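User: I'm writing a tutorial on reading structure tokens. Could you give me a worked example: one chain, its sequence, then its tokens, then a sentence or two explaining what the tokens reveal?
Assistant: Sure. Here is the example chain.
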Amino acid sequence: MNLFNSALGKNITFVHPAYFIISGLSGIPDMKYYYVFLCFVYIVSVLGNTVVMAVIYLDHNLRTPKYIAVFNLAFVDLFGSSALVPKLLDIFLMNHRNIPYNDCLTFLFFCYTCLSMQSFNLVALSYDRLIAIIYPLHYQVKVTNRFMLSMIASFWVFVIIAVLIAVGLLTRLSFCKSVVINSYFCDHGQIYRLACNDHFPNYVISCLFPVIIFWGPFVFILLSYLYIGCTLAKVASVREGLKAFKTCTAHLSLVAIYFIPVLITFTLMENIHPNARIMNLSLTSIFPPMLNPMIYVLQTQEIKTSVKKLLKIRGKSKVIKK
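And here are its predicted structure tokens:
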């Protein structure tokens, strides 16, 4: 981060604390049960996303652009949950609330990267549905495995650079008063507000980040489905339109589960009680990774067929061995 710690060719010394203190939820009794609940949700999330990834990997019929995006979504959900929940349990159940400065920034980087990638994964799935329904005859030419991999890779690069800039700008802040972060993790907005020097660039980042990472993808997804709906209304019967739109129900469920709480939290950040903000954001970080695999297994016919086929193959192999 030395690039961020020099200005106009001159070295500047910043006062960095040895550690930050994560406050978490305050004034609520028996909060340990809430964190135990998050642990249960995490276990279900790990199992569900591992199953989805394994099914897609093992079934060659699912080696399609759509399921490349679904695989990446499951990977991000698994990675994000594993970056967040074990650390939460260590902080609040083991009462290790002091987190070293560098560890805190690393924690922030992984949490924000995974949270942001969930948003762009939904964009990739939305684009896949848009082309599949509007241009069905050109779908295999326009959306190839290589194209989907390139799109997802570009999203990863963009998100990592954006989060690195946000983290890098935090290293230009001096902390000479409080080091208590009023959140459940190393939250960017809560950290830069503790600084005792000019934090205007960080404020700009905190304003741009929700627009670029959350509102931008959400508007794209909303417009794509409005376009799908208008097109189907013009060229298809009601029955055909509903049949086509049914292929989007799983994706629309993921969009609602992810975007509604995230947009409420990041848009009304200053007007929400700290406990409500922490609770909302923590559930937003944990629940979608748990629900996403359930939605895809229950609402996607290809996944259900693939699971049944893999279970039959395993059952037959056991019979042959006996």
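What the tokens reveal: The two ends are 60 Å apart (CA to CA). Residues 200-235 form the longest helix (36 residues).
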